[in-house]
């Protein structure tokens, strides 16, 4: 199947199931709020009556944050601890949602949408969790391998710092290409796990690996195009952020809405990636 | 007659030809107390220097001197029991573990010493340890003279010595074919006559080499001939007089002359690329590795900014040459250090233009030409007098010439200015009260020396400038410079200038300012002033009977509302600094008050039809030594806009991080 057609179908599938995008967005929004709101309260209770707070409107103020850290820095600790817990909870939630996302994008149901989503989320949670842990180990090993390779290239006394940049120029693209394979494998494994459930995860891994071996170039290319979309989106987001000169509440609000819009699109693109995988695999 | 004229012409020609060879400065800038003539041979195979050195010392006092003290810095790297190695942390370690295991150590050794009377003084040498009685330390050598040095008379001594060069040592040494040679020769201590600095009687000031301190030496003339392999490129303090080739031996002999300087540094490397240009009468030379040439213009631009700044602030750079050495990556051990008319400034071409370390280091090290080289303070005893002054002026220049800061990125207007960076460096120290600025460097045994001398030193000057104003401060620095250039001032000399100048500009406030100076320099007290609260109370109209019962006072509808406002201020730090206070009122007006800052708490009351909205201590940010600037103001209503911005940005980052993190599971 043509990979562009897969992307197109992936787009339409996500568009039809756009409530799923909204669900993910709301989950992310609420969990981020759990982290950000305590910071806001900390700032209000410690420095809320200082005129120096106005300097924060201009952007990052080193002097403010340095003094804040020295005088009230103890307040950071619970916020950081809480952040870690909330992010871990979100990752678990995303693992939970994965089964539902793959099932809904495969079936694109016209009715019982919610029932299918929640049922598959619950049904495949433990299996996808084990799969995720397996790939977490794999990703770590791949990263460690390339880190060692980088270290080996720059080890010893260097002629100049160019050795470091050359090593990075070699290692980073290689790492990217190799690591990408495991990310692709992970996504396709999830698909096979949901659409053709097996007793053992290893069977799913083998099945998806066979599929990747047969369609390696196409799945790679498909993934790279999706990554490109993501990159372009982040770049546009960055450029637009620079254009907004924050001087008042209204500009803060504008900046917030713009960034939320881009976050929504990022979730959309993330699901398009899954949608295109589903399309490519099921229609091949 | 003819023969007389001819003789006169020959004499004049000979005089001028000799003068162009032997002197650069038309008039001596300094007393030229310690003068050196050195012939050295660099052995790149054995990594050794062999040298013959003639020292001509002029007794600056009415004392009769019976000994001479020499710094033998390379002996700090002679064994692991030297004071330097005992004090050094792992970053300052003078020798790698591998070298130590292989028995590779460095040293400097005097083989022969003879005075002008022909006396052989080799048996009159012995090492002393004036600072810590460490008998393993051999960095100070005492020479007992057979003929004393009479008051104001010169004394000549010839020394033959050799040394083993350290590999990648602290500030000096070699790595591959890069040699950076500083503190490489037997260098005289400073003879301080009674009344100089803290000397109550004539004495040598010659401390051991300590891990966290630098140097102190006397002014003089250096005439140095460096014999190096032919393909090596050499640069040194002072001015290159000539370069001779010995093609048979495949050696080059470089002759350099440095006048009115306190030290002599040189470097040799066959791979250097030399960029040289004459700028406003100064020969600026940049020695840079081929891979770092990309930053050539950044060095030169920053150097020119610095020279221009000081030409207008103090006086024109007085030497004919300035050499910038950008070491190779494997020579970073020598980086970011200052020597007379020469300094090192490392750079990396992989750093993007918005990271301005190249400019910062160039400005900093070049500033040392004024604060350390010309105003030759004692870097071991009072390091803040060179590093603090230099850090202060570096920040001032960086913020002037590179307003985007030491580091900036467009996102969120991230902009790290040089001054705020210095301030942060001090206040982020583990213990900002670990010792006063006046404490000797090596007595900071538990860290904090750098934060105090760089950070607090610069903050003290910045605060002083804020309190006395730009014009008065400039006058202080100019007077201090004019009075003490090419001499050895100490903190008392600087404080005396401040005490002299400040009352001329601030007759009433001067006592508070001078008290602040003493606290900042000689004590460990910290500064923190707080606006504790602003309170406003509606004053009720007086209603009812008061004086008699004939008529009751009734409410008047047209009466103006009266408010009683109060602002309360705390001094939570021990340091006392005079403070300006600004009050903000609801009609948009402000009022300024002066508080001598002495009481632990202070209040300002205002009763009138205006309502006080906010109070601010130090509204013009004069007192940057205050450790918490956030609590320097208090508003009646909460300031939420800035907090909202932080909240929104933080929220967005967390959301984006969650989406990204979900990719790995």
β-strand number of chain A: 0
Give the CATH topology of the largest domain in chain B.
Answer: Immunoglobulin-like
Q: Compute the average pLDDT of chain A.
A: 93
**Total count of helical runs of at least 4 residues of chain A:** 9
Q: What is the tally of beta strands of chain B?
A: 31
Largest sheet of chain B: 7 strands, mixed
**Beta fraction of chain B:** 25-35%
| Spatial sequence of strands, sheet with the most strands of chain B | 4-7-2-1-13-16-15
Mean of all residue-level pLDDT scores of chain B: 93
Q: Strand content of the residues of chain A, in percent?
A: under 5%
State the assembly state of the protein chains.
heterodimer
Rg of chain B is 31 Å
Poorly predicted ranges of chain B: 10-21
Q: Helical percent range of chain A? A: over 70%
Task: Report on this structure.
The complex is a heterodimer of chains A (284) and B (665). Chain A is mainly alpha-helical. Chain A has one domain (3-283). Helices cover 85% and strands 0% of the residues of chain A. Chain A is built from nine helices and no strands. Chain A has helices at 3-16, 18-47, 62-72, 76-107, 113-154, 162-195, 201-214, 216-243, 249-283. In chain A, helix 4 (76-107) packs parallel to helix 9 and helix 5 (113-154) packs antiparallel against helix 6 (162-195). With 665 residues, chain B is of the alpha+beta class. Chain B has four domains: 29-268, tricorn interacting facor f3 domain (Immunoglobulin-like); 271-369, Orthogonal Bundle (Neutral Protease, domain 2); 395-521, no CATH class; 529-541 and 558-639, Immunoglobulin-like, CATH 2.60.40.10. Chain B contains twelve helices and 31 strands. Chain B has a seven-stranded mixed beta sheet, with no helix packed on it. In chain B, strands 18-19-20-22-21 form a five-stranded mixed beta sheet, with helices on one face. In chain B, strands 5-6-3-10 form a four-stranded antiparallel beta sheet, with no helix packed on it. The longest helix of chain B is centred in the N-terminal third of the chain and has 21 residues, at 2-22. The N and C termini of chain B lie far apart (105 Å). Chains A and B meet through helix 2, helix 3, helix 4, helix 5 and helix 6 of A and strand 24, helix 7, strand 31 and helix 12 of B.
């Amino acid at each position: 199947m043509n990979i562009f057609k897969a992307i197109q179908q992936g787009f339409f599938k996500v568009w039809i199931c756009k409530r799923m995008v909204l669900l993910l967005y709301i989950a992310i929004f609420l969990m981020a709020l759990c982290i950000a709101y305590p910071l806001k309260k900390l700032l209000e209770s410690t420095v809320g009556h200082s005129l120096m707070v106005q300097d924060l409107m201009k952007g990052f103020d080193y002097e403010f944050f340095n003094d804040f850290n020295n005088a009230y820095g103890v307040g950071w600790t619970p916020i950081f601890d809480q952040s870690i817990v909330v992010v871990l909870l979100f990752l678990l939630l995303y693992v939970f949602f994965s089964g539902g996302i793959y099932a809904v994008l495969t079936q694109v149901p016209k009715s019982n949408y919610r029932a299918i989503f929640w049922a598959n989320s619950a049904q495949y949670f433990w299996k996808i969790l084990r799969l995720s842990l397996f790939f977490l180990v794999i990703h770590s090993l791949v990263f460690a391998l390339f880190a060692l390779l980088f270290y080996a290239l720059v080890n010893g006394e260097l002629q100049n710092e160019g050795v470091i940049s050359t090593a990075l120029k070699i290692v980073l693209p290689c790492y990217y290409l190799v690591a990408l394979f495991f990310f692709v494998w992970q996504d396709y494994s999830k698909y096979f796990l949901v659409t053709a459930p097996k007793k053992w995860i290893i069977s799913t891994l083998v099945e998806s690996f066979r599929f990747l071996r047969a369609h390696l170039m196409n799945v790679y290319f498909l993934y790279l195009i999706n990554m490109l979309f993501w990159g372009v989106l982040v770049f546009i987001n960055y450029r637009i952020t620079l254009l907004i000169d924050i001087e008042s509440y209204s500009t803060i609000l504008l900046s917030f809405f713009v960034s939320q819009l881009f976050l929504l699109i990022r979730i959309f693109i993330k699901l398009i990636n899954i949608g295109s995988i589903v399309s490519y695999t099921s229609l091949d | 007659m003819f023969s007389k004229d001819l003789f006169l012409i020959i004499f004049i020609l000979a005089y001028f030809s000799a003068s162009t060879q032997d002197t650069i400065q038309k008039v001596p800038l300094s007393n030229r107390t310690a003068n050196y003539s050195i012939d050295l041979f660099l052995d790149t195979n054995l990594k050794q220097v062999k040298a013959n050195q003639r020292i001509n010392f002029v007794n600056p006092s009415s004392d009769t001197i019976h000994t001479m003290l020499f710094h033998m810095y390379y002996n700090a790297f002679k064994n692991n029991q030297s004071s330097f190695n005992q004090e050094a942390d792992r970053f300052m370690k003078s020798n790698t573990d591998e070298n130590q295991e292989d028995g590779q150590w460095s040293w400097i050794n005097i083989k022969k010493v003879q005075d002008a009377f022909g006396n052989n003084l080799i048996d009159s040498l012995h090492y002393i340890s004036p600072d810590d009685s460490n008998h393993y330390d051999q960095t100070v050598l005492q020479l007992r003279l057979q003929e004393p040095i009479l008051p104001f008379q010169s004394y000549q001594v010839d020394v033959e010595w050799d040394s083993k060069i350290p590999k990648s040592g602290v500030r000096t040494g070699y790595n591959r074919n890069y040699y950076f040679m500083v503190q490489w020769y037997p260098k005289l201590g400073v003879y301080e006559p009674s009344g100089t600095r803290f000397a109550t009687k004539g004495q040598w000031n010659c401390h051991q080499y300590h891990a966290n301190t630098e140097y102190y030496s006397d002014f003089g003339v250096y005439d140095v001939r460096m014999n190096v392999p032919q393909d090596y490129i050499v640069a040194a303090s002072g001015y290159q007089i000539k370069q001779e080739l010995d093609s048979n031996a495949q050696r080059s002999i470089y002759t350099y002359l440095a006048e009115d300087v306190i030290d002599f540094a040189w470097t040799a490397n066959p791979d250097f690329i030399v960029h040289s240009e004459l700028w406003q009468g100064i020969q600026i030379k940049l020695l840079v590795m081929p891979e770092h040439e990309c930053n050539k213009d950044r060095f030169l631009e920053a150097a020119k900014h610095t020279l221009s700044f000081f030409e207008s602030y103090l006086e024109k750079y007085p030497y004919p040459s300035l050499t910038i050495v950008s070491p190779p990556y494997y020579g970073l051990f020598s980086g970011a250090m200052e020597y007379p008319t020469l300094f090192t400034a490392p750079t990396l071409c992989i750093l993007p233009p918005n990271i301005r370390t190249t400019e910062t280091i160039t400005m900093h090290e070049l500033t040392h030409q004024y604060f350390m080289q010309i105003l030759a303070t004692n870097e071991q005893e009072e390091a803040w007098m060179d590093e603090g002054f230099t850090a202060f002026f570096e920040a001032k220049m960086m913020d002037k010439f590179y307003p985007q800061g030491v580091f900036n990125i467009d996102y969120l207007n991230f902009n790290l200015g040089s001054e705020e960076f210095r301030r942060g460096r001090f206040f982020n120290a583990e213990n900002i009260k670990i010792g006063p600025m006046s404490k000797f460097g090596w007595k900071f045994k538990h860290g904090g020396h750098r934060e105090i001398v760089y950070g607090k030193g610069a903050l003290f000057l910045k605060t002083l400038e804020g309190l006395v104003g730009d014009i008065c401060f400039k006058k202080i620095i100019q007077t201090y410079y004019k009075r003490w250039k090419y001499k050895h001032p100490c903190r008392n000399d600087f404080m005396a200038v401040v005490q002299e100048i400040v009352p001329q500009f601030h007759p009433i406030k001067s006592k508070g300012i001078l008290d602040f100076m003493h606290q900042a320099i000689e004590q460990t007290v910290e500064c923190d002033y707080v606006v504790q609260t602003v309170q406003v109370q509606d004053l009720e109209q007086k209603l009812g009977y008061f004086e008699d019962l004939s008529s009751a006072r009734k409410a008047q509808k047209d009466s103006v509302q009266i408010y009683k406002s109060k602002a309360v201020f705390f001094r939570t730090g021990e340091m006392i600094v005079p403070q300006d206070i600004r009050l903000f009122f609801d009609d948009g007006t402000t009022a300024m008050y002066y508080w001598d800052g002495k009481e632990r708490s202070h209040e300002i009351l205002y009763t009138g039809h205006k309502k006080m909205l906010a109070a601010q201590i130090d509204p013009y940010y004069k007192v940057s030594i205050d450790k918490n600037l956030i609590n320097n103001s208090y508003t009646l209503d909460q300031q939420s806009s800035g907090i909202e911005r932080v909240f929104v940005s933080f929220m967005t980052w967390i959301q984006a991080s969650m989406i990204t993190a979900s990719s790995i599971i």
